[in-house]
Amino acid sequence: QVQLAESGGGLVQPGRSLRLSCAASGSIFSDNTMGWYRQAPGKERELVATITSGGPTVYADSVKGRFTISRENSKNTVYLQMNSLKPEDTAVYYCYIRNLGRGYWGQGTQVTVSS
């Protein structure tokens, strides 16, 4: 079993930055993929960014150049640095890990971008 604990959400003005963190605990295999998804009100959950334990990353087109995903393998922790935030980035952000063929989700953290 795997647990994910997210932190770092909140209310921020357009153009500002936020950093999300997610720590995984439990039976974590060294070869895994972690990432972030988001879900805005009335919309489907969508990919934001993923990163493998080896380092390769994938980003949604809507966040390329503004968001950066990184991880600390020794801590089983993934980060999402979000810069130049826009109102359309407002959503619940969910941490995700794919470990030994199974996917696990965090409870989500709210990010609101508003003046």
Q: How would you describe the shape?
A: globular
List low-pLDDT spans: none
Helical coverage, percent range: under 10%
Largest sheet: 7 strands, mixed
Order of H and E elements: EEEEEEEEEEE
Structure description:
The chain is mainly beta and 115 residues long. It has no helices and eleven strands. It has strands at 2-7, 10-12, 18-26, 32-39, 46-52, 57-59, 67-72, 77-82, 91-99, 102-105, 109-113. Strands 2, 4, 5, 6, 9, 10 and 11 form a seven-stranded mixed β-sheet that branches. It starts with a strand and ends with a strand. The model has no long low-confidence stretch (mean pLDDT 96).
Key features of this structure:
115 residues; mainly beta; 7-stranded mixed beta sheet; 4-stranded antiparallel beta sheet; 0% helix
Helices, strands, pairings?
Elements: E1 2-7, E2 10-12, E3 18-26, E4 32-39, E5 46-52, E6 57-59, E7 67-72, E8 77-82, E9 91-99, E10 102-105, E11 109-113
Parallel strand pairs: 2-11
Antiparallel strand pairs: 1-3, 3-8, 4-5, 4-9, 5-6, 7-8, 9-10, 9-11
